[in-house]
Write a structure and sequence with these properties.
Length: 298
């Protein structure tokens, strides 16, 4: 008999109310081993509330969350050993040094001899030479890296990243992207929330797009783009000048020209900009889930 799959994270019909306000309205998704899953949505969509429930900071109104098969509501202490989390807020740990903070966090998880893991994370995240600095002396970018090291100090197989690159420069952002890819190669499951949609498109194997507490779409990132985004075709014609045409990604260029009434011999130039996740995101938030409509703008 085939055993049911145990996912690193499974969210089942999750609901969270604050009085009469429904913050999360029936979310269901899973995060698989060795994948980066992006939970995307505008401010107030319910992303951070969902992460707060997963990490046992909040209790669900109804529904279920399981981490490696463990119900987070029934076994919160056991669940906390299974994941690491990086919250939006940057840590402020007073007079701890970088290394002391990681030693303290190791002790929180019952790890008295964790020096090798700490050194590995310090090196991996470019913090080793700063290990004796007080946390309060670090730049915002270094504090962000330290938060990730703190989340991984106990070697969890599930990492929750809530806006991990908010407010950091592009160089650090790209370094963190590389680190997340390394985690994926190690088989670690990553749940990512971000407002940087190019970041999500680069990193995420699958995405779920949330709006007003509801899941609008879920699937492989490339499929979401293919289904909901449009490509922009910019035509420069001799007879009528410049035209912009929006069309489904899969539509052949010849069909686009024919439907727009453009003679290929009349073209001076043509440019095609492929659809991106940002376009799909915007269309989903405006409620346009139908096959992308075509339009032309002269």
């Amino acid at each position: 008999m085939t055993q049911p799959t145990t996912f690193p994270l499974e969210v089942i019909d999750l609901k969270k109310n604050y009085g009469s306000f429904e913050a999360v309205r029936g979310l269901s998704f899973e995060v698989r081993a060795g994948e980066v899953f992006g939970l995307l949505g505008p401010n107030g969509a319910g992303k951070t509330t969902t992460i707060s429930i997963v990490t046992t900071l909040e209790q669900a109104t109804s529904g279920q969350v399981r981490v490696f098969g463990i119900d987070v509501a029934k076994n919160p202490l056991l669940v906390k050993r299974q994941f690491g989390v990086v919250h939006q807020e940057i840590i402020n740990s007073g007079f701890f040094t970088v290394e002391e903070l990681l030693q303290f966090q190791s002790g929180y998880h019952g790890l008295r001899r964790n020096g090798e893991r700490i050194r590995y994370l310090l090196n991996k995240l470019g913090l080793y030479e700063h290990r004796d600095k007080r946390v309060k002396q670090l730049s915002g970018g270094m504090k962000r890296r330290l938060m990730i090291a703190k989340a991984l100090v106990h070697s969890p197989r599930l990492l929750l990243l809530d806006e991990p690159t908010a407010g950091v420069d592009i160089t650090l952002r790209e370094n963190l992207w590389d680190f997340v890819r390394d985690l994926k190669r190690e088989g670690i499951a990553v749940l990512l929330t971000t407002h940087y949609l190019e970041e999500a498109e680069l990193l995420c194997d699958r995405v779920g797009i949330v709006n007003r507490g509801r899941l609008e779409a879920i699937g492989e990132t490339s499929r979401i783009v293919h289904q909901f985004a449009r490509k922009k075709v910019i035509l420069d014609t001799r007879s009528s000048g410049r035209k912009e045409i929006f069309a489904p990604i899969e539509k052949p260029l010849g069909d686009i020209l024919r439907d727009a009434g453009v003679d290929p011999m009349d073209l001076r130039d043509i440019q095609v900009e492929q659809g991106r996740l940002e376009d799909a995101f915007r269309r989903l938030l405006t409620g346009d889930k139908a096959a992308p409509a075509e339009g032309a703008k002269a």
